[in-house]
Design a protein that fits this description.
This protein has 735 residues and is of the alpha/beta class. Helices cover 27% and strands 14% of the residues. The longest helix is centred in the first third of the chain and has 21 residues. The chain is globular and about 80 Å long. It holds the Pfam family zf-MYND.
Length: 735
């Protein structure tokens, strides 16, 4: 698939931006050679001519004592490709954070330090003197206790290699000799000792937008204000400030701040004579009140990338295609290259008129009844700031953004079943709460009298204010409810699904929805007469959760645990059952769907499926074809629906129904780095149209709308697309 905005972990886009900017910053800082002084004078003169930013800028000095970076076998030390930057920005970028594990991972240094202290203590008691084992070349390796040489000042070419681990070779050899086998390296992706990020320099504006970053590795610089590292920290900080003004990372044109404040007293004094060279006023006193606290968040980064060369907006100016306004390019060369790609069905010439039609749905998708709709459906939506301003920084809300919970806040880990203590607590909405008052009102005493078809109707019955953001989490159970009550009766009336007292539903290729599994409790509130069984299936689920299951019961606050068969938690909903007890059973199968064994389900549902992104769909779709069970899927864009139809045709010879907007889609617009298309979680719904059995004589169901005529020349700025539509044609025949 060409566009992965609705499927890619947003942290990967964030990391790609950070490392892309840092790589450019490192190259600029190390350039110059003999003309280094002249280079800096020229840069200072350029910055003095920049326009002034009315916002206050802050230089943060953030020490780190607990987290290290471990490089795997697929990576080499260094701030460039060694940290997987090519993988971040390449033609086939990773989609999940776990895809980076062969290259880089984060480890806790605290456990390693404790073990190292115990080992050193044993060495002292046994020998009293530490010995250095010789290396392969015969030269003795220096002891790990020897003081490290101080780093060179900013600007020298060897600096980038040293700070990224180039000076770690001796230490790593000594570490490998001293460690007592692979037990010490258990949990590390590489045999080398993890790199220590001793300090993080961060430039932001007063709103939290990140403008620049520098990493001080291995503690060679020391911490600010402790004398030994300060003389090296000053040129690093000054270089970072200059590059942040000339090339701001977050957003906007090059600019200098109205005023600058520093988060470290010693560094503030050392920069007093340097900052005025840039025409920037330094605050009289350092900033003493700021610190990482639960209510603070850095603003979402809005830097975009070129769809072809993947360069960020801080490197080049990006403009959308003049005809479809959907795809971003850095210039005419990349637009023409994408226009003429081969084969033809992957070229922009083929997709341009189709993408133009997708862009016309932006207004319809943004038509929602909430009071915050204008903010959350904007292309510049700042999700982290929105959630933080409402105190939504704990529980399931951390699963939807890059926010991390504050100290002492319990967190439901990603990719795992809910903690037993949460199930036994008797409150199914505990993980849906924020830092303020309860977000979910008590369950209405009477079941719903009618069928809900919009957020407005559901919010009114449930007693929710239209200012409540609960729709972001409840989009998953409400989408299941909409499929059961609206779509299945329309498309498969012979199933008589509305009169069934029990339903077995398979949630295939489960991902984020499994991390939010407790939100499906709302199905028991909406469908009190139905006993539901949800089986989450997918090879992306945690292996340790395979074959686990638990039952949520609505008949009281009592709790029972059944050894060997899962957990049974009775949660109070303040609703008395009239037709007997109705339970919600949750089962987990951590395997591809085509390898699942068991009885046939009543219904199959997949959220934001992306058939073209995983090869397992080429086996799972034929399995669904053989079961011929009603299967409904959501997508985050119309583009994804078209790609799913093509994949279904290749895998089975069938197709998909025309997609329809989901009235219970998430109101949050998803970030898109290389395009301007509207992406929303669960935005569209379609069902699979199976190929008729051989010899049945049945005609295949109608497929999607006919393709739009493909233009033959690249778009020009003044050219308008044609709106004529050709007459419809029959379903495509594929063998």
């Amino acid at each position: 698939m060409e566009f992965v905005s609705g499927y890619r972990d947003e942290f990967l886009d964030f990391a790609a931006l950070l490392f892309g900017w840092f790589r450019k910053f490192t190259a600029k800082r190390g350039a110059g050679g003999a003309s280094l002084e002249g280079h800096w004078r020229q840069l200072e003169a350029q910055i003095r001519r920049l326009p002034q930013d009315p916002a206050l800028w802050v230089l943060h000095v953030l020490p780190n004592h607990s987290v290290g970076i471990s490089l795997g076998q697929g990576a080499e030390p260094g701030p460039g490709p060694g940290l997987g930057v090519a993988g971040f920005l390449g033609d086939e970028p990773p989609l999940q954070l776990r895809d980076l594990s062969p290259y880089v991972s984060f480890v806790s240094l605290e456990e390693g330090e404790e073990a190292e202290e115990e080992e050193e203590k044993g060495d002292k008691e046994g020998a009293g003197v530490e010995k250095a084992d010789p290396e392969e070349g015969g030269e003795p390796a220096p002891s790990s206790r020897e003081p490290r040489q101080e780093a060179k000042p900013a600007g020298e070419t060897e600096e980038a290699e040293q700070e990224a681990g180039g000076g770690e070779d001796d230490r790593r050899a000594d570490k490998a000799d001293d460690e007592a086998g692979p037990e010490r390296r258990k949990g590390w992706r590489s045999e080398a000792a993890p790199l220590h990020l001793s300090c993080l320099l961060l430039v932001t504006d007063e709103h939290g937008t990140i403008l620049g970053i520098d990493l001080l590795m291995d503690g060679t610089q020391g911490s600010a204000g402790k004398g030994s590292g300060t003389e090296n920290l000053v040129p690093r900080a000054y270089a970072l400030l200059c590059h942040s003004m000339a090339c701001p990372m977050g957003s906007g044109d090059p600019r200098k701040p109205r005023q600058l404040t520093v988060g470290d007293a010693q560094l503030h004094r050392d920069l007093e004579s340097l900052v005025p060279r840039l025409g920037v006023k330094l605050a009289k006193t350092p900033m003493r009140t700021w610190g990482p606290r639960p209510g603070f968040t850095f603003a979402s980064l809005r830097a975009r990338t070129c769809h072809v060369c993947h360069r960020h907006s801080f490197e080049v100016k990006l403009t959308p295609c003049p005809q479809c306004s959907a795809v971003l390019y850095c210039g005419e060369a990349c637009l023409r290259a994408d226009w003429r790609r081969c084969p033809d069905d992957v070229s922009h010439r083929f997709w341009c008129p189709r993408l133009a039609g997708f862009m016309e749905r932006a207004g319809e998708l943004a038509s929602l009844p909430f009071s915050y709709t204008a903010e959350v459906t904007s292309e510049t939506f700042n999700k982290e700031a929105f959630l933080a301003s409402r105190g939504l920084t704990r529980g399931y809300w951390t699963q939807l953004s890059m926010l991390i919970p504050g100290p002492g806040t319990p967190r439901h880990p990603r990719g795992s079943t809910p903690a037993l203590s949460l199930l036994l607590g008797g409150d199914p909405y505990q993980l849906l709460q924020g830092d303020g008052p309860a977000l979910m009102p008590p369950v209405p005493p009477d079941p719903p009298r009618g069928i809900f078809g919009s957020w407005q109707d559901y919010y009114t019955w449930r007693g929710l204010s239209l200012d409540s953001p609960m729709a972001v989490l409840l989009t998953y159970p409400l989408t299941v409810y909409y499929i059961i009550t609206h779509l299945v009766p329309q498309s498969f009336p012979e199933l008589n699904i509305q009169n069934k007292q029990s339903l077995k539903i398979h949630v295939v290729e489960a991902g984020k929805e499994f991390d939010l599994v407790m939100v499906f409790w709302e199905l028991l509130v909406l469908l009190p007469h139905v006993a539901l069984e949800l089986q989450f299936v997918g090879d992306g689920l945690p292996p340790d959760s395979d074959q686990q299951h638990f039952t949520l019961q609505r008949d009281g606050p009592e709790v029972s645990v059944r050894p060997g068969s899962g957990v049974s938690a009775r949660l109070s909903s303040s609703t008395k059952e009239k037709g007997g007890r109705r339970d919600l059973q949750i089962k987990v199968s951590a395997r591809p769907y085509h390898l699942l064994q068991g009885p046939k389900p009543d219904l199959v549902i997949g959220f934001n499926s992306g058939f073209g992104l995983k090869d397992t769909w080429l086996s799972s779709l034929p399995r669904l074809q053989s079961l011929r069970v009603p299967a409904f899927f959501t997508e985050s864009s119309e583009y994804g629906c078209v790609m799913d139809d093509q994949t279904m045709a290749v895998a089975t010879g069938g197709g998909t129904s025309p997609p329809r907007p989901n009235p219970f889609r998430s109101p949050f617009r998803l970030r898109a780095a290389d395009n301007c298309m509207p992406w929303y979680c669960n935005a569209f719904i379609f069902h699979l149209v199976y190929k008729p059995p051989q010899g049945s004589g049945a005609r295949p169901a109608p497929g999607p709308a006919p393709p739009v005529p493909t233009p033959t020349a690249p778009p020009a700025p003044a050219r308008r697309r044609r709106r004529e539509k050709k007459p419809g044609r029959g379903a495509r025949r594929r063998r």
